[in-house]
Amino acid sequence: MRKAVPSAITKVRARQILDSRGIPTVEVDLYTNKGMFRASAPSGAPSGMYGAIELRDGDKATYLGNGVSKAVKNINEKISEAIVGMDPILQNQIDQAMIDLDKTEKKGELGANAILAVSIAACRAGAAEKEVPLYKHIADLCGGVNHALPVPAFTLISGGKHAGNNLAIREIMILPVGARTFEEAMQMGSETYHHLKAAVEEKYGPRGCIVAEDGGLAPDITSFREGLDLVMEAIGRTGYTDKLKIAIDVAATDFCIGSKYDLDFKSPKKSGQNFKSGEEMVEIYKELCRDYPIVSIEDPFDKEDWEQVKHFSGLGICQVVGDDLLMSNPKRIERAIHENACDAFLLKVNQLGTVTEAIEVVKMAKDAKWGVVVSQRSGETDDSFLADISVGLATGQIKAGAPCRGERLAKYNQLIRIEEEIGDQASYVGESWRHS
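Below the sequence we write its predicted structure tokens.
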């Protein structure tokens, strides 16, 4: 009897909501005969010239120009008309219909924020139609992969443009590779975070415990080593020394001036003496990887500094993750694979715009034996889609911020639920985090 009712999208309705920074983003309710399925688009800092385009209103009198009423209108009037009647199971056809309707390379006509919210909502509807969990439906779309729980990269200390301190690099993270389950990894992350808060308060006072956009602590530190020493102090207090590794997101594009890197770019009292060449940055990273258990470095150089990235990756010291370098852009990823520049990429789904395109770039990376890090954005919502896609595509790594703040924990808590649902068949990648 259930099959007598055709599977079809019956209505699509969008609205403007606020993300974790208080900036507007797009939320969609997509209806089928199975019910209503909701999704929202995350948002980051301006993604640059290589990522898909978020459509903003530009009216400075409303939300400082950041409103998304145009994107909402595009969903309610254009996208809705194009996809109502389509089968929600056919993700590729739904995504292609929106891409064809937009007609631009970067989705600037309808807005990647509009297209992505609909794409995720349709993905949820497709899973419901098949009566399977979302991660299982995503795995099916990818051709079927083992459901592996990823290693979380928990943000402990924030810097760069995400925090108000003088630390140049954007994040210092921990990876609980020695945990046996994802739930245990969460425990390790939470305990380390709270030990870090205690250590920061002892050294910098309560003001040092103010959290940044992604939940990381932002004490007034200025050097890489000062931050890393704090994290090592916290790790030491947990007793998990052999089970935790460190990852750093340098986000070097933020402080690259010409061919030099200004490590004091945030300091009001900078002397102008802390500029480093690319070669000097390589030596800094080599020393840090020697002195600390650093296993992954993200964006160690400017987004156009291909030669230094290739040189550093060739040293084989640690995983080298491309974020600003690649922007989740298939052409950039293809070039990086061909030139052996980095060996992992940061998957930011909103830089692509559809679930189908995210699946395609993950396949490309896995074929090249690359690591894949599913990533949050600075402007998040309580949508937990990143958790399901990380399991469905068995990416092995997820970066969703600190074990703090609801929009970050929405992803981590969903992974706990998924692990419980899979039961005895659940596999936490642990030490195999690089190539799950």
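The mean pLDDT is 93.
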